[in-house]
């Protein structure tokens, strides 16, 4: 029950953050799942592209294209990006742009 309450409070906090400029802690929480494929901090050493250090505008446009499912070569990214709003995507792009490679 406590775990469920924690999740609900986190979700409520992230929802409130959407209405304003996202604070760095909220963006870091949003970026956490990206590490599953892109590696810690977005610096993937493997076959999946590294996203750390990419220019923010280019990264945001790419993520928005994934969200709109306009890239026929994409596999899982369109499904993942549908869960993010444009403000969250742009905040993620800025966060990864500022993350060293």
From TrEMBL:
This protein is called Cytochrome c553
Enumerate the Pfam families for this protein. Cytochrom_C
Source organism superkingdom: Bacteria
A single Gene Ontology MF term assigned here is: heme binding
Enumerate the transmembrane spans: none
Coiled coil location: none
Task: List each copy of the Cytochrome c domain by range.
Answer: 21-100
Q: Where is the signal peptide?
A: 1-19
UniProtKB keywords: Heme, Iron, Metal-binding, Signal
What InterPro entries does this protein's entry cite?
A: Cyt_c-like_dom, Cyt_c-like_dom_sf
């Amino acid at each position: 029950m406590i775990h469920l309450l924690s999740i609900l409070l986190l979700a409520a906090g992230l929802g409130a953050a959407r209405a304003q400029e996202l604070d760095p802690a909220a963006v870091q929480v949003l970026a956490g799942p990206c590490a599953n494929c892109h590696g810690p901090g977005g610096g993937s050493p493997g076959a999946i592209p590294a996203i750390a250090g990419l220019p923010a505008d280019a990264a945001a446009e790419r993520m928005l294209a994934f969200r709109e499912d306009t890239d026929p070569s994409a596999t899982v990214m369109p499904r993942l990006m549908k869960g993010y709003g444009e403000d969250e995507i742009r905040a993620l792009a800025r966060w990864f742009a500022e993350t060293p490679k």
